[in-house]
Amino acid sequence: MTDSDLDAAVVRGPFTGLRVLELGRFIAAPYCGQLLADGGADVIKVEALIGDETRRNGAILPTEGRQFLNKNRGKRSLAINLGDEAALAVVRKLALRADVLIANFRPGDAARLGLDYPSLSAQNPRLIYAENSAYGPQGPMASATGMDMVIQAYSGIATPTKDGPIPHESPIIDYAAALLLAWGVSTALYHRERTGAGQRLDVSLLQAALVLQNNSINHIDITDDWQGELVDYLKHAFADGLSWADVLEHRRALQPHAPVRAYYGFLATADGAVAVAAGTRPLRARMLELLGLEDRWVAEPGWEPPDAHAHADEMTAKVESRLRTDTTAHWCAEFSRLGIPAAPVHLREQLLDDPQAHANGYFVRLEHELVGGITVLAPPVRFSGSPLRVSTASPTLGGQTRAILAEAGLSAPEIDALIERGAVAQWQ
Amino acid sequence: MAAIGDRVFSGIRILEFGQYVAVPYCAELFAHGGAEVIKVEPITGDATRANSAIIPGEGRQYIIKNRGKQGIPIDLGTDEGRAIARKLALSCDVVLSNTRPGLIAKIGVGYDSLAAENPRIIFGEISGFGTEGPFGNKAALDLVVQAASGLMISGRGFDGARPLGNEAFLTDYTSAALLAFAVASALFVRERTGRGQFVSTSLFQAALMLQHGNDNVFDAVDAWKRELKDWVETEHPPLDQAAERRSDRLASDRWFFNTFETADGVVTVTAPRPLHGAFAAILGIDDPMVSDPSFSMPDDPRPHLAALTHKAREAVKTWRTADLIARLEADGIPCARVALPEEALLGEHAAANSFVETFDHPAVGPVTLPTAPVRFSSSDYAAARTSAAYGEHTISVLRGIGLTEAQIDALIAARVVGTPGQSPYH
Known about the structure:
Largest sheet of chain B: 6 strands, parallel
Number of domains of chain A: 3
CATH topology of the largest domain in chain B: Rossmann fold
Mean pLDDT of chain B: 87
Number of helices of chain B: 19
Distance between the termini of chain A: 33 Å
Structural class of chain A: alpha/beta
CATH class of the largest domain in chain B: Alpha Beta
Radius of gyration of chain A: 26 Å
Number of domains of chain B: 3
Largest interface: A-B, 163 and 173 residues
CATH topology of the largest domain in chain A: Rossmann fold
Radius of gyration of chain B: 26 Å
Shape of chain A: elongated
Helix content of chain B: 40-55%
Number of helices of chain A: 18
Distance between the termini of chain B: 37 Å
Strand order of the largest sheet of chain B: 5-2-1-6-7-10
Strand content of chain B: 15-25%
Low-confidence stretches of chain A: none
Oligomer: heterodimer
């Protein structure tokens, strides 16, 4: 490749010319692989002969499920039996010619298969090896398997309600972990470009869940003794027969509290609810003026109400009594005029035809060869010079097996032999 | 320039025009990797210095996402202040901003005008809703975007008709990670081509991304999504009723991906294939999806799914949490007791992995918080220092772009820049 070829290629996508081998299942590693594919990388997805588990989640056709289609676009599929020695040797061969390997193995699987970083990097020192685990490599949970839903429980991110914690419908931790992994890969590519050396990087779902909660997951010794008290209390609370309502009430009483709820939250209107985020004192003052209300906590910096919870309850009731006099649309317009962030509360399906989302190109239309027309999310970052682009829909199972094996240096008879004994599969 | 390789972002200089959460956290990720990050604060101090302040000028939300940075308060309302901002920007590899749309160009540090003088510059921007469309210039904070994007509803917690939303700032942190990915990718591209570029994302895109699993329309099966949207927009049903109809339509009541009450607590279990059958066996449930190869889901799957969920709930109620977890783990089925965030933060597991660490902040004392969320085997990548005091680095930053002592003194006297002695928090 000449310099000008490279220039032109890189302008097509930041990862043009890179070979990525993905041993990814479910969400975190596959979505990371898709971000690299959108950026022009050649991503080979290694699948079991029966296909990635997600091919059957929300299945539209027997091998084409929603959860596969929406995070494997632009990749090529190699359907292979990792239990077969010769087939496994092919995957190792592909790893030795890859720039990046992305995986979310079950604990211990990588070493058992000889696809661990020390084995591969000994022969391919430029390899960037990106691995996602559930809980991280050390500690009491290191060998436990995990999935988003379980880490939503373990990390405390599920929304606590008096009837118990409610997990988010979307696997939010998986997606956050995928992003951190993708950022790690880009960072390691940059580092390799400067030094020539590859490396291993790892992210866990638990870490991603902590990042999402960064605003409140922290402990400042001079003010936060209550957190340790709460943890001790929780060691026996449920065993003592207390309910979630009791636990949350206890937490609320312990937790230091600024009375912001009247200004930052979901507030009832005449026809639903409006989200308001008057995050600073000047915005709160403007909001009070609009509603014809007064609050000493806003007016006098430094004044704190003797009972913050009672004060917040009282102000929230006053604010809502004003907001109930008109519609959500009215209040959104009024808040917007004053520069106070506000929005109506939507159902997710409303976004699919949302003019805002479409004006910014946040969705893209694709044709899948088996499933037909699909509307899916466009790459979530815009680059002015080397854009991420959607190339093709997700691959059919084993759709490119033969071509991938040929690139790995296998002869046609060798490939036929592997197909013959069911070590790999090529479907038309 | 520091030696390449000892820190992954050694020698990289970043100017941050960051507000609140998203860009400050993104810039902190680069500071952890050894980049020199200079944060421009309003002359009155960053807004988060005063939010839940521990001591005057040191708020929790400032301390936790401005570690390892230098800070310089500048009055960007003055010509002199804007000239300094531009000079600083041109001395940097990367400029990051989440100021109100249009503001950054108005003060003379927009990407186009910087790139005309320095084509290697990388500019990263996070907006609320993107730059086009009806909300293109809308002020936004995380919670508002959680509302507008459906994220609030998919969080599923309701208090009557009012959705609760997630306590965590989901779109802020997700967009921070997206921008970090984009900037690192742009640095990689610049290393290959010599050219910088403009990269951007939005809180709104981050919200869509978090709902990626179902934020899509497959024409073959998804006609109901447009029907639901039209019904909501013409009938204006109360939000809880709308959410209920949606939830019925999703029919996502999977008993084997669920949160259960046990005899003494609450536990979450996820048993996708091939673990599904093992979980059914442990609970003594017969799920025809596992046991009957000829089973096909009824046209309306809801009664069938609800009956199985009910059976599973009854079965789990007879188990003690610890016993159930031990039994499930023996079969490799992912499960966990439901924790509060404080337990995750202060628990043994996070400590064992160094996912959290304790720092000594010079003004407020010990602070425990999550560490850098990615681990590299050969690049030094770690959170090193605490956040800066108001104006702590003003003089050294100005010296760094070649200003004389007399020029610096004049700027301080005119209050165009701020120093600790002039802190508004005394």
